[in-house]
TrEMBL record, chain A:
Coiled coil residues, start to end: none
Presence of keyword Calcium: no
Source species: Desulfolutivibrio sulfodismutans
Ranges of residues in domain CBS: 60-117, 145-199
SUPFAM superfamilies xref list: CBS-domain pair
Protein's name in the database: CBS domain-containing protein
TrEMBL record, chain B:
Organism per entry: Desulfolutivibrio sulfodismutans
Protein name according to UniProt: HPP family protein
Annotated signal peptide: none
Keywords: Membrane, Transmembrane, Transmembrane helix
KW Transmembrane helix (keyword) present: yes
Parts of the chain that traverse the membrane: 21-43, 49-67, 98-116, 143-164
Annotated HPP transmembrane region domain residues: 15-174
Length: 199, 178
C-alpha cells in the first residue's frame, strides 16, 4: 500500500520511506509515518531558514542589463527580447536606477485594462482594427517606465524579497549599492531557485 | 469521532531486518547475557550479590537488536538503569508495606526521572519494579542495588555492545555518547 505525502517535499510515498529503511540495514526505531512527519517539518524549517538567511547578494543575477531613459520603446523592446528577459531597470544620466520597464508597461501602453496581460491585449486586438503597438511608436523609455523603481540593497533577505513581490505586485527587484547604482537583479525565478536550495 | 479514528493507526510497521542483522543481534545478546550471567555466578558465590536481573533481558533487546535507537545509547542504558534503580529503592523503602503502591510509584517516577534527564531506557522501568518486587535479597541491598546489579550489569552489557556491534561493516554503535 502506498500513500503519498499530502503536503511538503516532492511526493515522497510511504513505500519510499520503507525502502530507505531497508537500505539502512539494522532496525530503525521509527515508524514510516513519524519519519515522514519529521521530514516534512524539517523541510519546512530548512525552507524558512533559507528564506531568512539567504540574501539578494547570493541569489541575484549579476551584472544586470539596463535600459537608458531616452531609449525608444522599439529599441527597448528589441533590447529585452534579444536578451531573453521580460524587464530591466532604467538608468538615469548618472547611472542610478530611476525606474523599471517590464512587459507590463508595454501592455499597459497598448491599452490593456485592469491587470495588464497578453491575453487582455489579444482579446482587445481581435476586436480592434489596426495595430495596438502603433501607440508605442515615438515613446521613449522615460515616458512609459514604472517609476520610481522599487529597489533594495544586497543584504535584503529572500523572505523580504518575497513579501515585496507580493505587496507591490512586481516580478523583479533591482539590487543597488548605497548610491542607487545597479549591482544585479532578483527575479521570481532567482527566488524560486534559491528556495529550492539550488544556485 | 476523532477519538476512535485515532485508534485505527496512521502508518505501517517498519520493514523486517535482514538475516545478517538477526544473526548479529543473536550473537551480541548471547555474549552479553552470558557475560552478565557468568559474573552473576561468580559474584553470587563470593558476596551474595546477584547480577542477573530480568530487566537486562530487555536491555539486550535494545543494545543488540535496535542499536540505532536513542533508547539504546550508552547514556540511556547506564543512567536509565541507575536512576530507575534509585527511584525503585526509594519507593520500596518509603512504601514497601503497600506493594502495589510502591510498585506503581517506582515505575512511574523512574519514567519521569529518565525523561527529565534524557536517559529514557525502557528496561529501567523493570529495574525500578524489581527493586520493589524482588524480594528480601533485593531489599537488603538498599541503595547498593543501583550500583550492583543495576549499574554494573548495564556496564557489562554496554561493553559487549561496543565490542560486538562494531565488528560487522554495516553496523556501528553507539550513535552518541552524550
Amino acid at each position: 500500500m502506498t500513500r503519498n505525502a499530502p503536503t511538503g517535499p516532492p511526493g515522497m510515498s510511504e513505500e519510499d520511506i520503507l525502502q530507505a529503511m531497508r537500505d539502512m540495514h539494522g532496525y530503525v526505531d521509527v515508524t514510516p509515518g513519524d519519519f515522514r512527519e519529521i521530514y516534512e517539518l524539517a523541510y519546512a524549517h530548512a525552507r524558512d531558514r533559507l528564506a531568512r538567511t539567504t540574501t539578494a547578494r547570493e541569489i541575484m543575477t549579476s551584472p544586470v542589463h539596463c535600459l537608458g531613459l531616452d531609449m525608444a520603446a522599439s529599441e527597448a523592446a528589441r533590447f529585452l527580447a534579444g536578451r531573453g528577459v521580460t524587464g530591466a531597470p532604467v538608468l538615469d544620466g548618472r547611472g542610478v536606477v530611476c525606474g523599471v520597464v517590464s512587459e507590463k508597461d508595454f501592455l499597459r501602453r497598448m491599452g490593456a485594462r485592469g491587470a495588464p496581460s497578453l491575453l487582455g491585449i489579444v482579446s482587445r486586438c481581435l476586436g480592434t482594427p489596426g495595430c495596438l503597438v502603433t501607440d508605442l511608436r515615438g515613446l521613449t523609455v522615460a515616458e512609459f517606465m514604472t517609476a520610481p523603481a522599487v529597489t533594495a540593497t544586497a543584504d535584503i533577505t529572500a523572505e523580504d524579497i518575497s513579501s515585496l513581490f507580493m505587496e507591490k505586485s512586481i516580478n523583479r527587484l533591482p539590487i543597488c549599492d548605497a548610491d542607487g547604482r545597479p549591482l544585479g537583479i532578483v527575479t521570481r525565478t532567482d527566488l524560486v531557485r534559491a528556495l529550492q536550495g539550488q544556485r | 469521532m476523532d477519538y476512535f479514528r485515532k485508534m485505527r493507526g496512521t502508518t505501517q510497521s517498519p520493514p523486517r531486518v535482514g538475516a545478517g542483522e538477526v544473526a548479529w543481534s543473536f550473537a551480541g545478546a548471547f555474549v552479553g547475557i552470558a557475560a552478565v550471567g557468568f559474573l552473576h555466578a561468580g559474584l553470587l558465590d563470593a558476596t551474595g550479590l546477584g547480577l542477573l536481573i530480568g530487566s537486562f533481558g530487555a536491555t539486550a533487546v535494545l543494545v543488540y537488536g535496535a542499536i540505532k535507537s536513542p533508547l539504546a545509547q550508552p547514556r540511556n542504558v547506564l543512567f536509565g538503569h541507575v536512576l530507575s534503580a534509585l527511584a525503585g529503592v526509594a519507593a520500596q523503602q518509603a512504601l514497601g508495606e503497600v506493594v502495589w503502591l510502591a510498585a506503581a510509584l517506582a515505575v512511574a517516577s523512574a519514567i519521569a526521572i529518565m525523561h527529565l534527564t534524557k536517559t529514557l531506557h525502557p528496561p529501567g522501568g523493570a529495574t525500578a519494579l524489581i527493586a520493589v518486587i524482588g524480594g528480601d535479597s533485593v531489599h537488603a541491598l538498599g541503595y547498593l542495588y543501583a550500583l550492583v546489579p543495576a549499574g554494573l550489569g548495564a556496564t557489562v552489557l554496554l561493553l559487549v555492545a561496543l565490542i560486538v556491534n562494531n565488528i560487522p561493516k554495516n553496523r556501528r554503535y553507539p550513535e552518541f555518547w552524550w
